[in-house]
Amino acid sequence: MSVALPVDAQQSSSLWGDAWWRLRRNRAALAGLIFLSVIVVVALLTPLLAPYAYEEQRLALGASGPSAAHWLGTDVLGRDMLTRIMYGGRVSLLVGFVATAVALLIGVLYGAVAGYVGGRVDAVMMRFVDILYALPFMIFIILLLVIFGQSMLLLFIAIGAVEWLTMARIVRGQVQNIRRQEFVEAAVSMGLGPWTIIRRHVIPNTLGPVIVYTTLTIPSVMLLEAFLSFLGLGVQPPQSSWGLLISYGVETMEEFPWLLVYPGLALTLTLFALNFLGDGLRDALDPQSASGRGGS
Amino acid sequence: MQKINRGSRFNKSVRVGVLLCLLCTVIVAGGCGSGESNVASGNREGILYWGNGAEPQELDPHIVTGVPEHYILIALLEGLVQKDAATLQPQPAVAERWRLSADGRVYTFTIRASARWSNGDRLTAHDFVWSWMRALTPKLGNAYAYMFNPIVNAQAYATGELTDFSAVGVKALDDLTLQVTLDNPTPYFLQLLDHYSMFPVHRATIEKFGSIGEAGTVWTRAGNYVGNGPFALRQWDLNKKVIVEKNLLYWDAENVRLSGIHYFPTENLTTEERMFRAGQLHRTSEVPVGKLDFYREQQPDSLRIAPYLGTYFYRFNTRLPHLADVRVRKALAMTVDREAIVEHVLRGGQQPAYSITPPDTLGYTASSDLRYDVLAARELLAAAGYPDGAGFPPVDILYNTFEQHRKIAVAIQQMWKQALNIDVTIRNQDWKVYLDTQANGNFQIARAAWIGDYVDPNSFLDMWIADGGNNRTGWSDPDYERLVSDEAPSAGSVEQRYAILGEAESILLDAMPIIPIYHYVSIHLVHPSVKGLPGNLLNNPNFKHIYLQAEPAAP
Amino acid sequence: MRFIASRLLQAIPVLLVVITATFFLVRAAPGGPFSADRAVSPQVIKALNERYQLDQSVWQQYAAYMTDLARGDFGPSYKYPGRSVNEMIFGGLPATAELGLYALLVAVGIGLCAGLLAGLRPNTGQDYVPMTIAMLGICMPAFLLGPLLVLVFGMRLEWLPISGWGDLPGDKVLPSLTLGAAYAAYIARLSRAGLLEVMSQDYIRTARAKGLAEWRIVSRHALRGALMPVIAFLGPAFAGLLAGSFVVETIFQIPGLGRFYVQAAFNRDYTMIMGTTIFFSVAIVLFNLLSDILATWLNPRLRLALRKGSGT
Q1: With respect to CATH, is domain C96-286 assigned 3.40.30.10?
Q2: pLDDT tens for residues A213-227?
Q3: What is the C-alpha to C-alpha distance for residues B456 and B358, in angstroms, rounded to an integer?
Q4: Is residue B551 part of a domain?
Q5: What residues 247-266 of chain C have any CB closer than 8 A to a CB of chain B?
Q6: ipTM rounded to 2 decimals
Q7: Residue A277 resides in a domain
Q8: Strands B47-51 and B260-264, how do they pair?
Q9: Which terminus of chain B, N or C, has fewer Cβ atoms within 10 Å?
Q10: In this structure, what CATH number is given to the domain that contains residue B507?
């Protein structure tokens, strides 16, 4: 039983086409996108690209500055910094993407259901979100990580649990709007089940804001991970992340500045790129803010 | 819209204005510059700025357990005897002299008549009897009550088996004479007397704020505190600093040269080092490893490294089948390249350890056959049934979360892989979890350390008896226990005693329930103007003899 | 105001959940408050457990704790036996509150200025430069910015003290800047967006048409637009500032609450963990409420909407 497409195909292509056209005009966003693509590809291919093995240490070499053999120098255990930053980036990005995906999954489903069903269910569900907003989450995350040990899984869940709330709110608002629109009412009148309607009509139409918010959530998650790593609660050695590398780098930033500068640059630039891309996407996808306002 | 705006326009501009003004204030306050450094003003006024490592838990000598507390308590209180800061030989303190009976079991201390509490009260032998009774009161929960164990019946009183303190071997014969009776001649007994658990406390003050078995009363606050040490507590700002000033009623006040000490709870080593460099501290509690080379090259005068009475080692869980075999334990111990660890990972001049007792512990040096020998180790492992590591179960190293421990574990992981071809995993746990895991025997190999309570091999050897709470390896040996618990205490001479203890240590090293890795050093940054602070094995300063003398051209 | 009362009432179950969850969570954690490297004799452990009623059942402990809490007593600290948790919290509070206040001032002051500058001349250099700096502020974590500021202003230029709080003149500057920077950046972005929103409204056009001077238009009408999103942001920002204070207090050796919290968790200082958690929760709830009230007070339309009881 084929129904009218959620969004008319032609309209869709022009919407996304317009968005892409607008995004391409935004040089900062485009640069961000390119930079990110490079970082992601490098992260994926790190085991092939990394100049040295991850755990390889040359105690006798110690910390040495950038050189032909070690482009970004070595740390105090004689480990190649480029290799460490590449592997650290894998972890940082992984945490960023996976925790955001957790948030995305919970937030979109929750928000879509609340917004679609509406009425009392909506009121109760959103009140619950309000209550969770009031919880001191950072404190709980710290407590959980201290008490139950620092594992990646816990990190994903803990961060995802914080970040889904805003996502749920955004999706709910969007869904409420869409639900009132004609094609959805038409679908309802044609006797489609609510689940099908959510899946076929509502979710695709909320994609824009969700993409924007996701792009902006990833950097805040990565920052959160870095912050937790600084407190000694994030990723644990021998694994490493940019946040952890920075916190080691801080200790010796005067003698061996490259141990701080390069991981710091990697993190800051990636966050920069993600934020610019997010802003660009917002401008491109959100009709209300599309009038050429760069920042949010 | 206009209406609404008019209503709050004034408020709004005022608010913004106020915010901006306050901001400017913050920035202008910053522009004033930092003025004279602590070190410069301290050198002039005789104030020592001391990086103390952490906020003291308490200033009650019978409650606390840590090193930061130690540094404050030795300024505020004084025991019967103290150690010379350079030689660690016992010196008169509250006791002006003492006599030891011929059988070496009865000490008679003569308290100096000039000893005073900081409120002017006389300090008598009765103060010691009461203080020690308090230190042993079970309800108080003094973790260091075991320091009194050499004294007759002290342990029985501390465990509550004995409730009559008069049966304990501590008597005040008169106001100025204290008699202490020991179970066995204990050559290191005098050394225990300047441990803070044996310091006297002021009875009237404590009873004013609580009972004898009550912990955590406010008697330790500035204003309430009554001590007998060279300094008196003036200020204790939570998490900020502790200030002590010269105690004019101290019996030897004329020889106290500092007019005060400021202790800072410097938890962050990086910050502490920066404070030192900015002239805010005379002395740091530690030095970040990454900074060692900088100071070696740039300011060697400031870097103070001294041997420290402690050993870093790994415990084997000998209850596990594959680690129950002494050949396996030996093979593993023989393939730890201690020289490499010391030189490349630690970099602070630590000594490779081949025995549990640090060498030259008051004349005692253990003889050890342990050496780095890959070939012999491979043979041992093969003899144990694992030629070239074949079939050897994966080994797990447990350590508490700390960068230095991790580096060592990683290094050893590689050494064992290369030398013996066995797979090693490393596992870190948060401190409290690690303690639990170790106590429950839920580990294979665990990182550990031991710092001697007093300078005597016994402090490192009596922990390996079967029911010793610090053993945790599951290893025991009746011969070892007989030597340490029975024969050594009743030995006739120092030489004989050391020979017995040496024999015991050989048994221990032959069974190898532990892997000694390195002997500690104490590492501090000390400003060159600080005089009278020689390094020693116990890292024990004597604030009484410290003075500050600015160099003409200080760096 | 009914609105405030109902929000406060809503906060009570939230806090109860927080308290109960924390209470059982810390006791479920491996490792006790009195375990130590040097074996502690069973008698000592027994004495300590008795002293803090840890020998009773968890439910008895919970009941006792809640009873004390109802009286405003957080109990004694386990790690610092001579101190009550109340004393520790109120001892650390002034420094943390002061740090938070200055950081907020830095954030609002610099953020608003930058945001207004940028928003008045969108898509010019006056827009791009502050906004790029703001983005940098957002992307640079405090534990990177703090040491860098110390390195430059403390160690190289020697303009400012590098640690302490209220000991040396100017020692509050670097911590406040470090903590406030990220929020200044957010506020700059928020106020710029708010300003742009307002400037496109009809009444501004009317005002312009009436020939009002530009600065009067801005100061009379546009500022409100710039402030609105900023004020709504202050509540969440406060929670973030508290978390940030953990890092800043450690870097700058500040005797505040944040340092205690992380330490308490590591030390298994049950009562201290509970006390700080409850304290922070209450503070966050109150700040969110305050921020909502401010936003309502400044925006009558929102006030109306809230009266009608909208979900979000």
Answers
A1: no
A2: 888 788 888 888 888
A3: 10
A4: no
A5: 250-253, 255-256, 259-260, 263, 266
A6: 0.83
A7: yes
A8: parallel
A9: C
A10: 3.10.105.10
